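Hi F.,

I've been meaning to write this up properly since the lab meeting, where we talked about keeping a consistent format for the predictions we share between groups. The idea is simple: the sequence comes first, exactly as it goes in, then the structure tokens exactly as they come out, then a line or two of notes. No screenshots and no reformatting. I'm using this chain as the first example so we have something concrete to point to.
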Amino acid sequence: MHEPERDRDLESLTAGAEEAAASPLSEQVGRIVAAAEASAAEIRRDMEAQTARRVTEIEAEARADASRIRAQAEAEAADYLARSREGIDAFTETRIRRLTELSDSLSEHAEMVDRRFSGMEKVHRQLYDLIASLGAAAEAVAREAAVPGVPREAWPAGPPAGSRRATRGEG
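Output, unedited:
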């Protein structure tokens, strides 16, 4: 055989063998690609499931934190309100006590002034009665000592000049 023929024959044998080998190799590659795609899909599903579980866990933790923060804020608000009420109650109690003290003091002073005025009215009445009695006594003495011939109009009209005449209506 000649060399060109032999090269042709060799090429044809190699091509046939390659075709024969390519078919199982191609199937093998197809199976590997399909297995890789299936594995990738399974990994994707696992990752999505893990992500969904983690999202659920994070949401639960966030809700628990929010509840804890809300409860803490409510407790602090209740404590602040209680302290504020205590302060207001103490202030109110102090003011009421002071107003009561002032009211009692004012009442005592009013009673004292009332007693003084009552006493003054009594003294005023007694002075008026004394002056009236003195006037009656002076008239009696004047009548007894009256000199015949001195008219009553010549008698002194009242107390000496500079003194004040007290009457029941004056004060």
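Notes:
The chain has one helix and no strands.
The mean pLDDT is 80.

If this format works for you, I'll send the rest the same way.

G.
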